[in-house]
Amino acid sequence: VIVSLPSQNSAKIVKWKVEEGTIVYEGRVLLLYDLKSNNGTAELKKLKATEVGTVRKLLAKEGELVDGGAPLLELERGCSHPTVMNDLCAECGADLRRESAINAEASVPMVHSVPDLKVSEEQAQILGKADEERLLKDRKLVLLVDLDQTLIHTTNDNIPNNLRDVYHFQLYGPRSPWYHTRLRPGTQQFLSKVSLQYELHICTFGARNYAHMIAHFLDPDGKFFSHRILSRDECFNPNSKMANLKALFPCGDEMVCIIDDREDVWNFAPNLIHVKPYHFFQHTGDINAPPGLA
Known about the structure:
Elements: E1 2-4, E2 11-16, E3 23-24, E4 29-36, E5 42-48, E6 53-58, E7 65-66, E8 71-77, E9 83-85, E10 88-89, E11 106-108, E12 117-120, H1 121-138, E13 141-145, E14 152-155, E15 166-170, E16 178-183, H2 187-194, E17 198-203, H3 208-218, E18 229-230, H4 245-248, E19 256-260, E20 272-274
Parallel strand pairs: 13-17, 13-19, 17-18, 19-20
Antiparallel strand pairs: 1-8, 2-4, 2-7, 3-6, 4-5, 6-8, 9-10, 9-12, 11-12, 14-16, 15-16
């Protein structure tokens, strides 16, 4: 559809507020223009979009004097909803629960802790490529790190409170169960050294609160893992960690390594380094192992 100057008088294009490829929603300002009135004075006006669409071509240049009713831009109606958060399009604001917008392009959740934020396959490829270029520039690969029985061992049994190097914590308030965690010996030195060559990500079947608590013990300043924490709450499959790889790394996992005490949850992936399970507390295995895989 062609958007034209909504006046019979000539006008001067002052400033475009969009560019080709911009997704616009109803009411968004497209451009500013000076409208010449009959008495010769100029009045600054705003041209706003009357529908959702994508700007395909600008037909006038800034500073150009155009006639009344002249075509200004080509607008492709509708929105493919390339970025979605909680069923709302982040581009046009449409509520996809009300629309029959099951055809929304956004289907790839690329942020570890925000699975409701999704982007289109095309956008995921662009973001994934940018991540790869950044890693290559920094001369780093990616290392996905498991927690339970890989870097730590946790129990919720009653234990003495004076055990050396054991963290004691509650996750859900003062009436909730106590957890007790010990770091695998050498973990801090390992993280310090490996972080020089790898961008570190946590990938665990522990719940979100648990994963972030353990991350705080391992990395209180956030210099190793930052926000890159994938917990059970964000896993697509309760028995496998493989399902999230495609979303996190849409261009492929050739630059990704994994360390875990379990091979089965990664479908015995060739880029997995299988480590000996760390066992500190007697009578306790992996408290966060998926049902049936414990």
